[in-house]
Design goal:
Dynein axonemal assembly factor 1 homolog, 2 helices, elongated, 14-stranded mixed beta sheet
Length: 330
């Protein structure tokens, strides 16, 4: 599963939400009292992939899978599975998805040494553990669980995507060794400070939407960052972006900003989302004239939005703009 599948557009007032959401068709997980439990059904024993999503499966049983000697990808999304078990012999697995089950802990993965993608989102997991032998892991999805601490992943040095949104995490920590990480999603946690990211020099996407941030700081080493998502926080000033010259998307919607500043050096900026702030001074909008690649700007639901010439003024300042808020420029 590509992480971009989970960057849902149009969540409330934010143009894009990078906190993982349930699929529209899957808003309610299956309940145990809705009928008899299902079983894993194998149609082609030579297939490298088995998809048994939303089948009310209650357990992973060895006898149901043992003939699939070529299995590489196993999808068991939205079932009633309480424990990861009976997968010891499937050492050729490269992708395992148990999104939306009833797991409370990470176990039973020790022999899956070739696993590259693991999705355990939307479960009841409280602790990151049980990943000791998964050194080839490239994508790890643990969003919408009950995890309170980032831990026990420092050995996952091949990791490129880490999704920990919608948990109970308070501190960014224990990521120093993940030098190949390209995408980090930590939205909807209790984080109040950006820190401990200095070694993640290959990071391209950072999402800290809907946390408890008040200051943009400690980003100077992330010079390869292209997308920064900080909406739904308490940020009052645009700052700390001096070294982020590769930024193409900056999301600061739904904060406490009163003016636009300190972004003139972002010459590659294409998407700027500042809606739902407190920007009242048209003079601060003039700085956008330096962002010659700007394609889209969101400024609705600021005090300047009440100006009857709102769109016209923006177009005069940035005549090359193609979209203002949700509407294309004619």
């Amino acid at each position: 599963m590509d992480v971009t599948d989970d960057a849902r557009a149009g969540d409330g007032d934010s143009p894009v939400n990078h906190v993982r959401l349930a699929d529209p068709a899957d808003q309610e997980a299956p309940a145990e009292d809705d009928g008899p439990l299902g079983e894993i059904v194998v149609v082609d024993i030579n297939s490298p992939e088995l998809d048994m999503n939303y089948q009310r499966i209650g357990a992973i049983k060895a006898e149901e899978l043992e003939r699939m000697v070529c299995l590489e990808r196993l999808f068991l999304r939205w079932n009633l599975i309480k424990k990861i078990e009976n997968l010891e012999t499937f050492t050729s697995l490269v992708e395992l998805e148990l999104y939306g089950n009833q797991l409370t802990e990470i176990v039973g993965l020790d022999t899956l040494v070739n696993l590259e993608i693991l999705d355990l989102s939307f479960n009841r997991i409280t602790e990151i553990k049980g990943l000791n032998n998964l050194n080839k892991l490239k994508k790890l999805f643990l969003s919408n669980n009950k995890i309170s601490k980032i831990e026990n992943i420092d050995h996952l040095t091949s990791l490129e995507v880490l999704e920990l949104g919608s948990n109970k995490i308070r501190t960014i920590e224990n990521l120093d060794t993940l030098v190949n990480l390209q995408q980090l999603y930590l939205g909807k946690n209790k984080i109040n400070q950006i820190k401990n990211l200095n070694t993640l020099k290959n990071l391209e996407i950072l999402s800290l939407q809907c946390t408890r941030l008040t200051v943009i700081e400690n980003l100077e080493e992330l010079t390869n960052l292209t997308d920064l998502y900080l909406s739904e926080n308490g940020i009052e000033t645009i700052q700390g972006l001096e070294e982020l010259k590769k930024l193409t998307t900056l999301d600061l919607a739904m904060n406490k900003l009163t003016k636009i500043e300190n972004i003139s050096h972002l010459v590659d900026l294409e998407e700027l989302w500042l809606n739902n702030n407190k920007i009242a001074d048209w003079n601060s909008i003039n700085c956008l004239a330096s962002n010659s690649k700007l394609v889209t700007v969101y400024l609705e639901k600021n005090p300047i939005f009440d100006d009857p010439n709102y769109r016209r003024k923006i177009k005069l300042i940035v005549p090359w703009i193609k979209q203002i808020d949700a509407t294309l420029v004619r």
